Amino acid sequence: MSQRVAEKRVIVLTGVTRGLGRALCDRFHELGHVVLGCGRSADQIETLRSRYPDPHDFSPLDVTDDRAVAAWAGNLIRKWGPPDLLINNAALINRNAPLWEVTADDFQRVIDVNILGVANCLRHFVPAMVARQSGVIVNLSSGWGRSTSAGVAPYCATKWAIEGLTQALAQELPRGMAAIPLNPGVINTEMLQSCFGQAAQHYPTAEEWSQQAAKYLLGLGPRHNGQSLSVS
Ligand SMILES: NC(=O)c1ccc[n+]([C@@H]2O[C@H](COP(=O)([O-])OP(=O)(O)OC[C@H]3O[C@@H](n4cnc5c(N)ncnc54)[C@H](OP(=O)(O)O)[C@@H]3O)[C@@H](O)[C@H]2O)c1
Questions:
Q1: 0.90 cut: is pTM over it?
Q2: 155 catalytic, yes or no?
Q3: Candidates 52, 155, 203, 216; catalytic one
């Protein structure tokens, strides 16, 4: 209880069913904030609903479905008002392969979630935040949004896009708000296991990472608008 903060924040978090999003959900709950989360895995969403009942809210949702995102955001904003913190965390990585071996469908899937899914959430949450002239938007970037490696070209392309998209958004926001592309570091999740294989086990777990990362995220504010940051 001593960890709890005085100011309760309303936090929208995509990709809450596993990995970094799932660990952040636990930390934000412990710190006394309200988590409004989504992910596609209906069984994991049910588990979260039982574990963290009202006022927290978890919905089975695919961020690539713009109409579903519109309905989800509309319901949450009607109940809670605009979020204090919007974290666009949901993403996919392509199976390691040289770019010329990535099928059109596989490349499209990565773009759909990592870029268009983020844009969908921005489209439906940001207007209410702008009207209130407050709130922080964090779009999960990557070390591969600022550098590159062989085998993950589609993923790199989307995370470089997130850096650009977020920088432009930062220039559009009114004073009092922030849009931040955030590199979380290197963490042993299913995504890292996909691209690093066995070497992923040498990195911190999402649980370990989240102890520091949740507080770091809660410390972001208008002064960070447009800065490409990394969890430290
Ligand atoms: N782990 C790292 O070392 C690392 C490094 C740099 C950047 N990142 C970034 O950090 C974020 C989280 O990564 P992670 O490692 O936690 O990945 P992860 O373990 O693969 O988890 C990804 C999350 O995104 C959700 N998701 C995927 N597609 C979705 C969709 N269409 N709609 C809604 N939710 C969707 C997944 O849930 P469902 O499958 O249930 O939908 C899951 O909850 C990503 O943006 C990633 O690019 C991670």
A1: yes
A2: yes
A3: 155
The residue written with tokens 């960070």 in the block is 224
Q: Concatenated DSSP letters for 101-124?
A: GS-HHHHHHHHIIIIIIHHHHHHH
21 lines ligand 1 (CB under 6 A): yes
Q: Evaluate the omega torsion of the peptide bond into residue 204 and state whether it is cis, within 30 degrees of 0.
A: no
Per-residue pLDDT of the chain (232 residues; tens, 9 = 90+): 344 555 899 999 999 999 999 999 999 999 999 999 999 999 999 999 999 999 999 999 999 999 999 999 999 999 999 999 999 999 999 999 999 999 999 999 999 999 999 999 999 999 999 999 999 999 999 999 999 999 999 999 999 999 999 999 999 999 999 999 999 999 999 999 999 999 999 999 999 999 999 999 999 999 999 999 999 8
- From 36, 66, 191, the mutation candidate for ligand 1 (largest count of ligand atoms within 8 A of CB) is 191
**Candidate CATH numbers 3.40.50.720, 3.30.450.80, 3.20.20.140, 3.30.450.20; the one for domain 10-230:** 3.40.50.720
Atom of ligand 1 nearest to the CA of 194: 20
